């Protein structure tokens, strides 16, 4: 069974630009969650999608958005990039609602904003 | 705070020794999970303990949960160089999985 796939693995963007990250969950998993990891703030929850609906959202500005498609693949978009958005973005998939059973993580997308 | 607080932040031990990491929290939980992360890569699930359980084992890992004290500990026995990583506790409830800041474990050969 293939694991969680995140693309791209590395990305360099300029301030003010926007970026779209992609996550393909494990086949059959309907829940996808996104996390931002930085040295200062640690792992912070961005949002969770389940069956194409956003079910939960963390405390991030509206510049951070996401969506989930009918095949459970998810995308995360960050508009008007700021230097502070430089981070490792991780997505995790689960069969059911996040928090009840284990989450399977992708390798992450390392975003650098210059 | 909804997240767990881990202690210590960093731990350095000799290969073969046991490593113990602790996680304290303030909210109610359905379960508590431990994850490992190697050098800024993805997290790997290690073990899940439910709120009605007190202890779980998986290989060299032993996790305890004390809901009255709102704390959990992860014990890695007979440590190996490959155990060098960051370890995170995560609080699970119906809404989301919230991670602590992690413990950086270094195993010295």
Structure annotation, total helices of chain A: 0
Count of extended strands of chain A: 11
Q: Average the pLDDT over all residues of chain A and give the rounded result.
A: 93
Structural class designation of chain A: mainly beta
Question: What low-confidence regions of chain B span 5 or more consecutive residues with pLDDT below 50?
Answer: none
Number of helices of chain B: 0
Classify the helix fraction of chain A into a percent range: under 10%
Low-confidence stretches of chain A: none
| Proportion of beta-strand residues of chain B | over 45%
Compute the average pLDDT of chain B: 93
Q: Tell me the series of helices and strands of chain B, N- to C-terminal.
A: EEEEEEEEEEE
The best one-word shape of chain A is: globular
If you had to describe this structure to a student in words, what would you say it looks like?
The complex is a heterodimer of chains A (114) and B (109). Chain A is mainly beta. Chain A is built from no helices and 11 strands. In chain A, the strands form 2 sheets. In chain A, strands 2, 4, 5, 6, 9, 10 and 11 form a 7-stranded mixed β-sheet that branches. In chain A, strands 1-3-8-7 form a 4-stranded antiparallel β-sheet, with no helix packed on it. Chain A is globular. The mean pLDDT of chain A is 93. With 109 residues, chain B is an all-beta fold. Chain B is built from no helices and 11 strands. In chain B, the strands form 2 sheets. In chain B, strands 2, 4, 5, 9, 10 and 11 form a 6-stranded mixed β-sheet that branches. In chain B, strands 1-3-8-7-6 form a 5-stranded antiparallel β-sheet, with no helix packed on it. In chain B, a hairpin with a 4-residue loop joins strand 9 and strand 10. Chain B is globular, with a radius of gyration of 13 Å. The N and C termini of chain B lie far apart (37 Å). Classes of the chains: A mainly beta (114), B mainly beta (109). The interface between A and B is medium-sized, with 26 and 25 residues.
